[in-house]
User: Fold dihydropyrimidinase from Cylicostephanus goldi.
Amino acid sequence: MGLHDFTKIPNGVNGIEDRMSVVWERGVYRGKIDPMKFVSITSSMAAKIFNIYPKKGRIAVGSDADVVIWNPNASRVISKSTHHHAIDYNIFEGQVVHGLAEITISRGKIVWTNNQLQTTPGSGKFVPLPPFSPIAYASHEQRAKSMRS
Assistant:
């Protein structure tokens, strides 16, 4: 399976398509976090953890202009029959989520709208992840330092 066509290789678990809606549902919709914390979790902190901030995770001159237009009132039922993943199951199958990405803009261009991907092959851009993210390694360094003391 996938020997001659890598798109047929079964993936581990799905997630990217549903991740923000699941976080909104379990966090904001259920009253555990506010919308500002949602933005931090799904954009700026994620970019900091992967050590690509401020190129990603920020709206500012010099950043990549990656923006999600979010509809907090929209809802849907997650299903393997409607997702865009190359797997035949969904770990969130049957869950109702509130909050949906209506439009996604990548590097200033609309790439997702009307529940459809609107890109052409080769339009993506590899984003190298520099090693040793200060966010990821700060606690490790602090722990190591305290153990030496």
